[in-house]
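Schema walkthrough. Field components (list of strings):
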Amino acid sequence: MSRVDNTSPKAGDAVTAAGLNEKFTDIQTATTAGLDEANFRSEALDYTKFPVNNAHGKTGIVLRDWKYANNGVGTSGGATYTSTTIAGAPAELSHGAGSRLVWPLGQELAANDMLRAHFWLWADAVGIDESKYKVAYGNASGNPYAALVGIDETDIPVWVAWLQWDITSNALANWTEVPGQGDFDSNFSSAGNGSYCDEMLATAVIPHGSRYAFSGQTYLLKHTDLPVRRSYNYVNDTGSPITIYGLRLVINGLFHPVCSSFTSNKNALTKKISAPTWDGETIEINGVTLGALVQRTT
Amino acid sequence: MPAAKFSEAQTVNQGLVDARGFNANYDPLKGVLNGGLDRTSTEDGWVSRTHLAPNALHKVVLDTSVELSTGLQNSGTSAFRFDCLRYEDYGGGWYANTSFNVSGLREGMLHLEFSGLAWCNKFYTDANPKGFGIRVLWNGIAVVHTGRWYTEWSTPYVSADFPITGDGTLSLEFEFSPPAPGTDSSTSPQFHLWGGHILVVARFR
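Field assembly_structure (string):
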């Protein structure tokens, strides 16, 4: 607190040079790196008092940094991904010339800072083995795959895309899942590999198709130009700063829902590994956009 | 900050120093320093993060555990399905799935986002083209109200920005197609919502 509290001379007091000079010294003391909330009146801080940057707005008061990347592909002509039943690393979603989000010098995510990521993409799920899915409504006879999609409701499988980051170095050789996100590669024994549903905070699900019924027949609807959008938010509650060097998207498939003793009776998405399987099917992922903000939460 | 005005009893060389005159010039300066500095007193662009108290400008609340209410996850275990909503427990209409209070707010603008994952049972679509909708309420008033998603797998995302006057209660609700009589099982899995998070960023006036 830097108030100037001194006694004003009164009529009749002896006034000396030292006494008057001391009055001004009191002001000098208070104004030398000492002004604080006690010195400013209400609404003393206006917009112009905050540092502004018309180029990017990153003053560090709330927003610390932001980045954006787009693979330059529209709604067609993107990369094709093939499904498997085996365990293993996912494929990176092509980011084209725009590449991933990269911070060559690292971006600090201080304690209690928040990472806000948004991504969206266009999907064409046209590489479908229809023989696995066509079934007469309520009539499974004559269909070798009736046990898969039969009169007992079973789901069309799904692709999953999710976020990874590299918090090791700008060599970008150590990608790991962002907090709250599984790698879809946990082994659930006979249920196949996948992740629990409570490990999908940065996951987007991309349907391989949708069922619909008409006049007693069940059909598989193939999705084209399907937009998918997801956001992910993480507050660094570790108590220590994290340095982010990169963010990227990856994809894997095909998965189906399960809740069994193999998944500890918890909901999960796993790859079906018993015949007939869902390997060898494809999806085309087109325009991919990834953006991120790093901001303070207090 | 007022300029010093030596309008009376300015101290001059070899002049008599008068207490009243001195105080008339000195006391206004002291008064301004003691709680009177305003926006005209300081230069532009000097305020940095270190000069601001926590939550002086905004407040953030993040809920990363949004999923279908556990009370509705009753369809049972299965090798090819979720344990999720069934018609025996839900017959249609808006269901308040997630609700929490947001405190420490002041007048300003509130930005909210919900992003999650969803699955719908599309088997009996001839009789029942099943889909779901999302709405978010602030103090009981819907600030976001979507149409329906009809794909078997969906990644719903909604956001809204609206003025606030202070603390409030946020509620996330969903609605799912009611059962088609005679075709939909009351015990089969119908709808699941998981992997969701709600972000609130309140910017103060």
